[in-house]
Amino acid sequence: xxTKRDDFKVSTINAxxxxxxxxxxxxxxxxxxxxxxxxxxxxxxxxTAAHITAASxxxxxxxxxxxxxxxxxxxxxxxxxxxxxxxxxxDPESYSVxxxxxxxxxxxxxxxxxxxxxxxxxxxxxxxxxxxxxxxSNTFLPKLVSNACQATSQALESLDPRFAVKTGxxxxxxxxxxxxxxxxxxxxxISPKYRKEFYEKYTNLLDHGEKLSIDSEAIDMKGSPLIxxxxxxxxxxxxxxxxxxxxxxxxxxxxxxDGELKYRFNDLIGVASLGKxxxxxxxxGLKGIFHMTIRLSYKDFIPTDxxxxxxxxxxxxxxxxxLQLPYVEKLHEFYNKINxxxxxxxxxxxxxxxxxxxxxxxxxxxxxxxxxxxxLNFTFMVREISKHLEVPILYDNSFxxxxxxxxxxxxxxxxxxxxxxxxxxxxxxxxxxxxEAFDDLSNIIExxxxxxxxxxxxxxxxxxxxxxxxxxxxxxxxxxxxxTEVSPEINCDISEITPGDLVEIEWKPSETCRYKIEKLxxxxxxxxxxxxxxxx
Length: 536
Description:
Elements: H1 10-19, E1 34-36, E2 43-45, E3 47-51, H2 68-71, E4 77-81, H3 82-90, H4 97-114, H5 122-133, H6 144-159, E5 163-170, E6 173-180, E7 187-190, H7 195-208, E8 212-215, E9 219-222, H8 225-233, E10 237-240, E11 246-255, E12 262-274, E13 278-285, E14 290-299, E15 302-312, H9 328-339, E16 343-350, E17 353-360, H10 367-389, H11 403-418, E18 420-423, E19 431-436, H12 442-449, E20 455-460, E21 466-467, E22 474-475, E23 479-490, E24 502-509, E25 514-519, E26 533-535
């Protein structure tokens, strides 16, 4: 007999769907979920009323504290398309109760704002383009950017038909790509300030096929009204790219130090650029986060040696929830294996033809790798802390941190994951606490009698600690510090102690002592003095 499910009423489902205008509540989806069929008496529905906390025990995000009515109420429901409904249940750790409630609230707010407003069509976009380009339109225009880019390209091409022009807009930057259709004679002058930089980059362009990128003020070009117009009205960067780029694929895998294990990573899609002395292959993958560059020197078109580097573009994660960052665990595992000495291997194909294979055994010594792995590891640990404490944190690319803060995050990560235990020999400084002497000095006398004998003590934090990774505050749980074999020592003459005195106690560990830090499962008892310690 199956487990009973607390399903929604039909009236609840209808209200839930209508409150979001029959659209999926996932902000990255938002597809319409209802529409007509060929039978005009029927409706095609691809949406579902999903439970935020599961309808029955054992389901995703199940909350046993809810009553039967609470579990089947509209407050525990979210309208999703069937694809998104499966996603949230297949990966409940990535889709928390709090996140789903945020989706629901946002979807209802959008539906409220759109209520009574017409949705634009293509004709409306065309009619509104001119006013939008002048900054006078407040209307949502889905094809504005592509239409504006096409119009701009045509206007620039009219200045000099010898060039094909393609314009684009991405991440707040305008891009203009120019390709000569025929031979164009032009005069290029380089500013003295940039001559050394330009010469080095121009040499790399010719010898290795590397793209040349330089500040626009470095170059003065004459011979084309198009280029002169761009220089006159644009401040940015000029880029010169090799003409004969070829499609390339880089396959990557790792091999364990003993050669027994193989770890398959990803295929990267990119381009190969041919220079006079070498060929440069650049590939990227994992949604533009991971990048690899390989430069192969050759003689008689046969590769002789090469240089390889990898780097991560963390900008692609900016302002995204740490729990939803793509490929964090995959990248962390990959970089961690390289850091442990696994050999990086690669195979290159250019337009389907296998060119060469190779490996790098010292990639973990490169400065770029060390920096990227350190930040990736930091992000991974903060992500796990966020998961443990159920506190949402957004990735902030502007956040900077010290090595001390990195160590602090590592300590918190380890405590929350499995606790920390170190040997007495690793304790750099003896634990100390302060006791306020009772009226009859009984607590001080008791400690004095323990001198030279081994005991266990636990010291609990009295206040919660706040940290701010990625510029967002997290309140940490209370931690307990436990010393398994220590002997107390009072560093003063006991005969001179009077009631109310604050007495410092030093706890000296044995060689077999263990120092443990654990998350406290219950709040510490109210202290009787400035410190809260317990002799066990």
